[in-house]
Design brief:
Layout (H helix, E strand, L loop, with lengths): L2 H5 L10 H18 L3 H5 L9 E6 L3 E6 L1 H14 L5 E13 L2 E12 L4 E13 L2 E14 L6 E4 L5 E2 L3 H8 L4 E4 L2 E4 L2 H15 L4 H11 L4 E8 L4 E10 L2 E6 L3 H14 L3 H11 L4 H8 L3 H15 L4 H9 L3
Parallel strand pairs: 1-6
Antiparallel strand pairs: 1-2, 3-4, 4-5, 5-6, 7-8, 7-13, 9-10, 11-12, 12-13
């Protein structure tokens, strides 16, 4: 972990009480010990009691709740032992501290780029108690608001359409994209018609960034917001799909084949009653392959692939590949 990241735990904010400084020092030690895989140093920051609790929630791994010191310690030990040597970039901002007697409550926001965790951005709540004059962690809740999933094919924009968290790798990839460009911090399509469609979709998504707005949309439409933009590739007979969705109070744009698009096709296959062969055809089309390429991958003749496609059209009520992609990816 970089030295600068630890300094961010205690930015200069004027005079602090001895308790506040002790709490900030404890949090800095906890972070340093965790990333150094120093089990003894990490354990010294916690109250080793059955009352200890941790709750962690991430997109990739779901919900993990550990109650009691033994459960928390065992999970952390396994994590330390399974993690390969790595470099880390980490920053934790303590946004609020409340101290009442021998209890303290912290609200934090952290940003990480590390092989030791799959959480890029987290909101955290920590509860500490003072025992024998020493502050100890008794509860930590860590909720991921952005993950590393499909980072190289996934862009995030805020409600105004500004790109969020655009790293050098992703920027280099999209600088070479033939259909898109990044202009003044916004994703734009080269073709004016596609750009209009893109900006309208981003605008619609931006209006749904709040939790209650998303719930209202899902209840009225029968599904969560998802809008696929389909780019035809006349040179290859294939296409590229950009799926626009909303989560974490951000708009996400998935480029190409991703976990999100694949899972949506799986759901659509069940809804429309597609056979295994028809589902594989549908997955190939959504992934941007041409029908001859799909047939070659499945080791079937082009005529057989075309027959499967016609049956997929019939079951989904579509007649073109573009319409089929939109239908498949709009089912949740």
């Amino acid at each position: 972990m970089t030295a600068e990241s630890l300094n961010e735990l205690a930015p200069d904010a004027g005079p602090r009480s001895p308790d506040e400084q002790a709490i900030r020092d404890l949090m800095a030690r906890e972070v340093a010990a965790f990333f150094a895989r120093d089990a003894a140093g990490w354990a010294a920051c916690y109250l080793q009691s059955d009352r200890v609790r941790s709750v962690m929630m991430s997109h990739d791994l779901g919900l993990d709740v550990r109650v009691g010191w033994d459960a928390l310690c065992e999970g952390t030990r396994m994590h330390f032992e399974s993690t390969v040597p790595h470099t880390s970039s980490y920053r934790k901002d303590i946004e609020q501290i409340e101290i009442i007697g021998d209890c303290a409550w912290l609200a934090c926001r952290a940003y990480a780029e590390s092989s030791m965790c799959l959480m890029d951005e987290t909101y955290e709540t920590w509860v500490l108690e003072r025992h024998d004059g020493q502050w100890k962690v008794v509860c930590c809740d860590v909720l991921s608001s952005r993950s590393s999933r499909n980072r190289d094919r996934r862009l995030a924009v805020d409600a105004e359409g500004r790109l969020v968290g655009l790293d050098a790798r992703t920027r280099a990839q999209f600088d070479k994209h033939p259909a898109f460009t990044i202009r003044a911090g916004h994703l734009r399509a080269i073709d004016p018609d596609i750009d209009r469609e893109l900006q309208v979709a981003i605008g619609r998504a931006g209006a749904l960034h709040g939790y209650f707005e998303q719930v209202s949309f899902a209840l009225s439409e029968g599904q969560r917001f998802a809008y696929p933009i389909v780019l035809e590739r006349p040179d290859t007979g294939g296409r590229e799909v950009i799926l626009i969705t909303v989560e974490d109070r951000l708009t996400y744009l998935d480029f190409g084949k991703s976990e999100e698009t694949a899972s949506r096709v799986d759901v659509a296959a069940m809804v429309f009653g597609l056979s295994d062969s028809q589902q594989r055809i549908a997955q190939g089309i959504v992934a941007g392959q041409s029908l001859p390429d799909i047939a070659a991958d499945l080791h079937i003749s082009p005529a057989t692939a075309k027959t499967h496609l016609q049956r997929v059209y019939s079951k989904t009520g579509t007649t073109t590949m573009t319409a089929l992609v939109r239908t498949l990816l709009s089912v949740t």
